[in-house]
Each structure stands twice: as structure tokens, then as C-alpha cells.
Amino acid sequence: MAGQIGGAVAQTGNNPFLRGVNALSTLAGWCAAGMIVAAVAITCQMIWVRFVLNGSTVWQTEAVIYLVIAATLIGLSYVQRLRGHVNVDLVPLALPHRLRKAMATLTLGLSIVIVAIMLFYGYDYWHFAWERGWKSDTVWGVRLWIPYLSIPVGFALLLLQLIADLIAMLTGVEAPFGLEDTSDAGETN
Predict the structure, then answer these.
(1) Is there a domain that residue 188 lies in?
(2) Contact criterion met (CB below 8 Å) for 11 and 173
(3) Is residue 187 a part of any domain in this protein?
(4) What would the pLDDT profile of 81-135 be if each residue is shown by its tens digit?
């Protein structure tokens, strides 16, 4: 929400790659929202079954947990697209444009490396669960590769959005940290 208030949404220009990643991140946001709505509906159904019908629930709690975790992971790229992650721009505001761009490049580069590592190990974990046929130790016995799939998918989408952000910044489609350069304008007058 904070990203929308300030109007800080990832810029795409006419770049087809940036527009494609933007569309994927938006789709991921809608999917994440759908998962949250489903989790809320299942929670309401669970409350009805337990307290009104005085019955037992088998799958509801586990499904809600998996849906909320998946929504969080799948929604990462959408939140990055909206610039909704917590940021402190005190240092970038104090820097001249060239250093601000260098800092943004370094920050995005490190973020890409860290998310790529998370993607690698997330995929490995998902694949291990799929290969071994892991199931949860509950009555429902869900095949764990299904909820674990949100790990590599979520980090792959976030990685794509971070790469798109870096490309947008390096090609001048977007300003570093979304901060327009006002120091150069003052120096030319």
C-alpha cells in the first residue's frame, strides 16, 4: 500500500521484458490475494464445523497454513513491483546521483545473488520432497511437494522482478531508488 500512495510502482517504459515481468508480478499478486481469500473462507468454514456443528476438522488448519505461506512467497514479486517492502532512503537522499546509482546497483546486485541462492536451495528442497514422496504426518497426509512448490516459484518470480528492476534502473527507465535527481538541476541554474 505504501508504494501505491507515493506512486512508486516499477516502471517499464516500452521494454517488452520489463512489461512481461510486470505482468507476471501482477498475476502473482492476484494469485496471492486469491490464496488469502481462500484461507479466510476455509477458516470460516472450520469455525462453523467446529463450533456450530460440533464436528471435527481434518484438513482445514493445514490448508490454511500452507495457503498463507504460499501467498506470502508468491506475493513477493508483486510487493517488490509496488515498492512495498520496507526501505530507508535517508542515505540515498544524501548521495549525489552517481553514488546513488552505484549504491542502487550494488543493492540490487546483492539482492539478486541472495534470492538466486534462496531459489537454488528452495528448488533443491522442493525436488527432494517430490522425489522422496514426502507426505505430512497428519490425517490429511498432503503430498508436501505441492505446498513446497511455492518456495522455488515465489523466489523465481522475485528474482525476475529484481532483474527487471536492475535493467530498468541501468537503462534509465527508472531512477535509482525511485528518487528523481534534484541536485543536478540546482547545479545547472
Answers:
(1) no
(2) yes
(3) no
(4) 998 877 777 888 888 889 989 999 999 999 999 999 999 999 999 999 999 999 9
